[in-house]
Amino acid sequence: MAHAETHDPGTPLEYQSETGRLNILGFWIFLGAELALFATLFATYLVLMHRTGDGPPVGELFEVSSLLIQTFLLLTSSFTSGLAIHEMRRGHVKGLLIWMVITLLLGLGFLGFEIREFVHFVGEGATIGTSAAWSGFFVLVGTHGLHVTVGVAWISMILFQVSKRKFTPATTSKLFISSLYWHFLDVVWIFIFTAVYLTGMVMYHG
Amino acid sequence: MKWDEFFVTGDPLIYGADVSIALTAAGILFYLTYFKKWGWLWKDWLTTVDHKKLGIMYIVSAVLMLFRGGVDALLMRTQLAVPDSKFLDSQHYNEIFTTHGTIMILFMAMPFVIGLINVVVPLQIGARDVAFPYLNAVSFWTFFIGAMLFNISFVIGGSPSAGWTSYMPLASSALSPGPGQNYYLLGLQIAGIGTLLTGINFLVTILKMRAPGMTLFRMPMFTWSALVTMVIIIFAFPILTVALALMTFDRLFGSHFFTLQGAGMDMLWANLFWLWGHPEVYIVILPAFGIFSEIISTFAKKTLFGYKAMIWSMLLIAGYSFLVWVHHFFTMGSGALVNSVFSVTTMAIGIPTGVKIFNWLFTMYKGKIEFTTPMLWSLGFITNFVVGGITGVMLAMAAADYQYHNTYFLVAHFHHVLIAGTVFGCFAGLMYWYPKMFGYKLNERIGKWVFWVFTIGFNVCFLPQYFLGFDGMPRRVYTYSEASGWGPLNMVSTIGGFMMGVAFLVLVYNMYYSFRYATRETTGDAWNGRTLEWSTPSAMPPFYNFAKIPVVDRLDHFWYAKQNNTVEKLETKDIKKIHMPSNSGVPFIMGSFFFIAGFGMVFGWFWMAILGILGVFGTMIHRSFAYDDGFYVSEKEIIETENITN
């Protein structure tokens, strides 16, 4: 609810309206719930990762190059989204748009390699129905990928709004929130990188 | 799929239900059209974002679901009244105990407490609305749609029959084929979205929108209980979301999380389910504790004893609630060490709970107790809940649990805590805040009849079940032999069950009677209350709640203001225009798309599911692009509403 308010001149635009402040706090709490959601998926995967039945062990099919490219793309995109928010704080609409578009392109690149990898696994006979371990893998990594997809679509729409409305308390709080979301996905990926890929390859190759 | 597979056929009870659904629907449509109420329904209710109206809609839905779940209960009790009964067959009985449990927990208890929280918490903290009013409407509609999706299962496609716990592999597509179990998965999934959003919404509301001067340790106890409950929701509901999604994948897309083939692990489901399920029982009991705290303090006319101890014990309970889940399956065979750990944590929960019980007793000590109906329910809670708590400690002993597990002893235990805790709490809260919601009290004399018939019936129903459990009667059996000797106690239990049914009907009659004859409240302070919700000048607060935001300097501020004659009177100069959010029909439309998506998934019609999901995304995109900044209520309108003359 927008009340007439006085601000410290240093208050960033996204924190200047009551709605903006409430939305940002609400989104932090939402990320807490997302943390619980991914924690459950990780726990499920870790419980099931040795239960491969007749299917291949998960580590056997992982490819280092694809993994490194995906990781590089997503981690860089987190950095560029940070640069975008930096531009937003400086009041540069154009700078924000450029860095955010780069962020989204990196995100799309990540998705491309992830989809290519999934297709490859399916071709090698590892599908969601192969074994409990592969079910856990596809749902955990797939849920992350789905989040990235939703993020790309969502941020695109926010950028469209920013290009029309420029920086207002409403648009900047949306941008800030979407960048929190993007960084969160990066953090989740680091855990996937470690708990799924590294662990899987080390277990298989020794 | 043929039509006779789509609709449930062949059972006279179901045909009766079909007819009554058709008649009720026709009656509602006729009423709305004949009395020209469609506009009223849409403008005042379906599109509202007012927390008080959403709360009332939650409560009305919960009472309807209490009726549905209660009918299920009475059907079961009728079947079990005598040995070798032929009233229900085994499949039908399985479906009924499944829907009874699911509906009572998720579609009755939860919405009832969330409804009371919706109505009361913003008023108690001196706020004009919740942090996210639009999201609040989304919460309600996703809950409501989830409940409706679950409920139509018994006439379309068939109900789930694997128990409310839906243990695998019983709930798998191999052993529970057909849409029944899918209804459970999708209905709970959609309703769960709403619950999670409620959790975020009210946590932010309580943290950020309190009246000036109301520090955390000056908040009313009900608001505290809501705060703790929301934290539990935020960390527990995502677990349910994942568990349901994984089972949905197992059933619809051939994954192997919980299956016996493909190296799946069936007990993983039990763990995930109870990792959510045990916190869930605290989600429905903590707000009830808050309600009792308010009522006991009000009608003993004393400040709550041990205010801070009450808060710390709730926080402890919330923490422990995530550390006890294995006690639901001690017999799984986790070994002595694991069972011992969970046995100890479970018993430890009894300590903070005991602290609360003693605090309530000490609050009443030397108080001038007024025996109103809300107070009767609260007193009834203390005595009956202790019975449930003690039997809970008995069950907590892992070694002894091997004896009680899956018997009627357990059934009696959890009904004794859930009914004497949550249901008594909901009834107490309903009677207590009824004048705040509707402007008049429920009739006290009829209310006392409801209390006594219900409480006596409740004990007549469940006390015998402890003994049936000792005697070895397992739960979830649709009949038993005469030779077992369980007949007489079951008959007694059934009589008690019907007494509770009668009490419910009298309660509904009381709503009608009071609507017709009760004297209307002239002030906002129906019970000589202590907290801010009673400080509004009119019995039912206007949609903006407070013309002037109150300033608080201590716990029970309003009570002390009354004692010291310092209650502020509104003056024209205090009035400033008020900003409020606009109504929106989009949450309702979003809910409808959720229904389409859920229904498509239930039957595996993926074109329909995709259509529904696209619709849901469409409403979200609409929301993102709509820049609606709400509207202002003018000073003139406020002065007229508040009747300010000076």
Description:
The complex is a heterodimer of chains A (206) and B (646). Chain A has 6 helices and no strands. Chain A is mostly helical and 206 residues long. Chain A has one domain (30-39, 60-205): Up-down Bundle (Four Helix Bundle (Hemerythrin (Met), subunit A)). The radius of gyration of chain A is 20 Å and the shape is elongated. The mean pLDDT of chain A is 93. The longest helix of chain B has 35 residues, at 90-124. Chain B is built from 20 helices and 2 strands. Helix content of chain B is 67%, strand content 1%. Chain B is mainly α and 646 residues long. Chain B has a two-stranded antiparallel ribbon. The chains are: A mainly alpha (206), B mainly alpha (646). The interface between A and B is large, with 41 and 48 residues. Chain B: Its cofactor is Cu cation; ferriheme a. Chain B: It catalyses: 2 a quinol + O2 = 2 a quinone + 2 H2O. Chain B: Residues 34-553 form the Cytochrome oxidase subunit I profile domain. Chain B: InterPro entries: Cyt_c_oxase-like_su1_dom, Cyt_c_oxase-like_su1_sf, Cyt_C_Oxase_1, Cyt_c_Oxase_su1_BS, QoxB. Chain B: Keywords: Cell membrane, Copper, Electron transport, Heme, Hydrogen ion transport, Ion transport, Iron, Membrane, Metal-binding, Oxidoreductase, Respiratory chain, Transmembrane, Transmembrane helix, Transport. Chain A: It comes from Fictibacillus barbaricus.
Q: How do you describe this structure in short?
A:
The complex is a heterodimer of chains A (206) and B (646). Chain A is an all-alpha fold.
